[in-house]
Design a protein that fits this description.
By secondary structure, the protein is of the alpha/beta class. It contains nine helices and 14 strands. Helix 5 runs parallel beside helix 6.
Length: 286
C-alpha cells in the first residue's frame, strides 16, 4: 500500500533528568522511501533512533515501527529482527576477520542473503581474511553496511553513517544505498547533519531541532515551498509576531532574524518591511 507507514511517532517525548531530548516529535516515514533525518548534533536524532529500536523507552507519546509499539518488549524484538541498524560507532568485533564477522552475524538471521554478501564483498573491496581491527574507518563503515544490507531487513536505520569519512568513501556509501533500494524492497531512515547528503539520495526529509520536527515532507515539495528568510537589522533583531501563513519557526540571534516558512516568502516579506531591516535574503530550505 503506497501510503503505508514504516515509522510513525506521535507527540514523542524523552526526558533525561532535566534535559528534554525530545519535545513532542511527530514523524511519518512511508514504506519504500529514503528519509533523511536532518539536525544538528544534540537535536535528538540518536535518542529518536534508540526509541524506535526499543533500546530506550519514551517518557510519553508513541513510536510505532511496522505498526508495532516500539516500547513493548515483544514488539521491539520483532522490530529489531526486521531492521538493519548501523550505528555511528560501527559496532564490530575487532579480533574477528571480515569473514568471521559475516558468518557470526549471518547465524542470527534466517533470511540472510548470500547473493548480496558476495555482491558487497566485491563492490566494497572487502578482503575476507583481514582482521577487523586493521580496517580503516571507511572500510569499517562498508563492512557494517554489508552486515545490515544482507540480513533481509525491511527497514535500514543509519545513525550518521558517513561521519568522519572522506568524500570518496561517502559517495560510495551513499550510492550503494540508492542502488540497494532500487533493487530491493527496503525503507531507509538515516540521520545526518549534512544537508548535501539528504539532497543527494533522499526523497523525503524530516528536520529536527531541539527535539521537535520543524520540517517534514517530500523533498521535491520542500524545495518548492519551504524558504529560509534572513533579515539583518542595524541593532538587535526585533521580536515580531508574523500573521502570514506557513511560519514554521522564528529565531533571533544578534542582528539577524531568521524565519522558516512552508508557504513561500512573499507574505512574510510584506510584513517585514514595517520592521525596517537593513537587508534580507531568501533561500530554499533545506
Amino acid at each position: 500500500m503506497a501510503d503505508a507507514l514504516v515509522i510513525e511517532t506521535t507527540d514523542l517525548r524523552k526526558h533525561y533528568d532535566r534535559v528534554e531530548a525530545l519535545r513532542g516529535l511527530n514523524l511519518q516515514v512511508p514504506t519504500g522511501s529514503i528519509c533523511g533525518f536532518l539536525g544538528r548534533n544534540g537535536a535528538g536524532k540518536t535518542t529518536t533512533i534508540k526509541i524506535l529500536l526499543g533500546i530506550t523507552r519514551p517518557t510519553s507519546g508513541q513510536a510505532r515501527v511496522f505498526g508495532l509499539a516500539a516500547d513493548q518488549p515483544e514488539a521491539s524484538v520483532d522490530i529489531r529482527r526486521r531492521t538493519g541498524f548501523v550505528s555511528d560507532d560501527k559496532d564490530l568485533y575487532d579480533d574477528m576477520t571480515v569473514q568471521e564477522m559475516i558468518r557470526f552475524t549471518a547465524a542470527f538471521f534466517p533470511r540472510w542473503r548470500a547473493d548480496l554478501e558476495r555482491r558487497y564483498l566485491g563492490r566494497f573491496g572487502l578482503r575476507p581474511d583481514v582482521k577487523v581491527k586493521t580496517l580503516s574507518r571507511g572500510t569499517r563503515t562498508k563492512l557494517a553496511l554489508l552486515l545490515a544490507l544482507c540480513r533481509g531487513a525491511e527497514l535500514l536505520i543509519l545513525d550518521e553513517p558517513t561521519s568522519g569519512l572522506d568524500p570518496a568513501v561517502t559517495e560510495e556509501v551513499l550510492q550503494a544505498l540508492v542502488a540497494h533500494v532500487a533493487s530491493e524492497e527496503m525503507t531507509v531512515f538515516f540521520s545526518t547533519h549534512q544537508i548535501a547528503e539528504v539532497d543527494q539520495i533522499a526523497d523525503r526529509v524530516a528536520i529536527i531541532d531541539r527535539g521537535r520536527a520543524v520540517v517534514t515532507g517530500a523533498l521535491d515539495d520542500l524545495r518548492e515551498n519551504f524558504r529560509r528568510i534572513e533579515f539583518v537589522f542595524d541593532g538587535d533583531a526585533p521580536e515580531p509576531s508574523f500573521r502570514a501563513p506557513g511560519v514554521e519557526r522564528v529565531q533571533r540571534k544578534g542582528r539577524v532574524l531568521t524565519v522558516l516558512s512552508s508557504a513561500g516568502a512573499d507574505r512574510i516579506l510584506d510584513e517585514a518591511r514595517a520592521l525596517s531591516p537593513v537587508s534580507w535574503t531568501s533561500s530554499p530550505s533545506p
